[in-house]
Design goal:
Structural class: alpha/beta
Mean pLDDT: 90
Largest sheet: 8 strands, mixed
Distance between the termini: 40 Å
Number of helices: 11
Bound molecules: dephospho coenzyme A, zinc ion
Shape: globular
Strand content: 15-25%
Length: about 375
């Protein structure tokens, strides 16, 4: 039994002036890449409540700078991706073949602390909180060993950082959570970076019809490029979108995915799948303090309603394999990266996200 804290530090970009931030094991920094995800902005807007001050960022790739005592799975110099859903290997979810939501994740408690209850950042002597156990908008961060995956040293960090959140979340919702089968019909509500990754997952799984749904028609070209066979805008119809989909697919899709984070589209996605064997997956983060009222007959007839966090992947096991698949060109990441910006333009990156002009912005040094 290990009793020593298993921590290590990575190198990333800096959120505050370098001399103001102190991270354990600070040393040299090397390669830097961190994407800006909608969840980072949710904290800024208050939709996701976290303690302040906090270092945001959770979709990144970096290089191990140093390791704490007892750390065996990575060593200084390794290229790694931090994991906002860790894999401790000991909790009920990790031990179950079915689960992936490790109890060590801070998604539920949102305490902004390391699993040992500490924060490893200070700014001008004041404690600064961690975000989802990762905190990647900073030159150095500290994560538990269970929250970092070693990846192929040849992987381009400014691309594979997306495997740390958005890409894996969508791609896994199709392949791992829904387990889309060849020849099936799928509907994806919401064509941001996560929804487009669901489209890619459905295509890799061999779906024969992939219907992309968005109120912004500018999203359709990229969805088609990545595998959508049909693109529809709910604003173009004078009937509910689930009825349109039911008619288009002669009784409903096999699999539907809500990748927006709205309760009305969650219900529409459930209603558009086949009444007897359709499966609907909630991928979008549910809005805080909102409930859904729905006709239970929708489920009584046999539909299944599921949720998916981090694509259902057991993170530490899956992330190195996803990077290997990227290197084998099983899927692409370039179409998701609309902007690569220097770290100093982080605010521009957030503006691009808020105005719907970017899919993913990646910040690099
Ligand atoms: N009908 C159809 N499309 C809509 C509607 C609507 N009523 N409203 C908005 N849309 C479209 C927008 O035009 C946009 O194209 C898309 O929905 C949403 O895209 P983005 O870019 O806002 O969001 P993404 O793809 O980055 O996805 C983010 C989620 C919304 C899925 C967000 O909840 C998320 O990041 N989920 C990940 C879940 C998770 O595990 N989070 C924890 C760490 S991130
Ligand atoms: Zn994210």
């Amino acid at each position: 039994m290990r009793t020593i804290p298993q921590t290590l530090s990575l190198t990333f970009s800096i959120v505050c002036h370098k001399t103001d931030i102190k991270a354990l094991h600070r040393n040299f920094h090397q390669i830097v890449a961190t994407g800006i995800c909608r969840s980072d902005d949710h904290v800024v807007s208050g939709a996701l409540v976290m303690p302040f001050p906090i270092i945001l960022g959770h979709e990144a790739a970096g290089v191990v700078e140093s390791v704490g005592q007892g750390v065996t799975s990575v060593k200084p110099g390794d290229k790694v991706i931090p994991l906002f859903v860790p894999q401790c290997g000991e909790c009920k979810s990790c031990l179950s073949t079915k689960g992936n939501l490790c109890s060590k994740t801070d998604l539920g408690s949102r305490a902004g602390l390391m699993p040992d209850g500490t924060t490893r950042f200070t700014c001008k002597g004041k404690a600064v909180y961690h975000f989802l156990g990762t905190s990647t908008f900073t030159e150095y961060t500290v994560v538990p060993e269970s929250a970092v995956a070693k990846i192929n040293p040849a992987a381009p960090l400014e691309k594979v950082c997306l495997i740390g959140c958005g890409f894996s979340t969508g791609y896994g919702a199709a392949l791992q959570t829904a387990k889309v089968e060849p020849g099936s019909t799928c509907a994806i509500f919401g064509l941001g970076g996560v929804g487009l990754s669901v489209v890619m997952g459905c295509k890799v799984a061999g779906a024969s019809r992939i219907i992309a749904v968005d109120i912004n028609k500018d999203k359709f070209a990229k969805a088609k490029q990545l595998g959508a066979t049909d693109c529809i805008n709910p604003k173009d119809f004078n009937k509910p979108i689930h009825e349109v989909l039911m008619e288009m697919t002669d009784g409903g899709v096999d699999y539907s995915f809500e990748v927006i984070g709205r309760t009305d589209t969650m219900t529409a996605a459930l209603a558009c799948c086949h009444s007897n064997y359709g499966v609907s997956v909630i991928v979008g983060v549910p809005p805080a303090a909102q409930n859904i009222t729905f006709d239970p007959m929708l489920l009584f007839t046999g539909r299944s309603w599921k949720g998916s966090v981090f694509g259902g992947w057991k993170s530490k096991d899956a992330v190195p394999k996803l990077v290997a698949d990227y290197m084998k060109k099983t899927f692409v990441l370039d179409p998701l990266i609309t902007h690569t910006l220097p770290w100093t333009k982080i605010n521009e990156g957030f503006d691009l996200l808020r105005t719907g002009k970017s899919i993913r912005s990646v910040l690099t040094f």
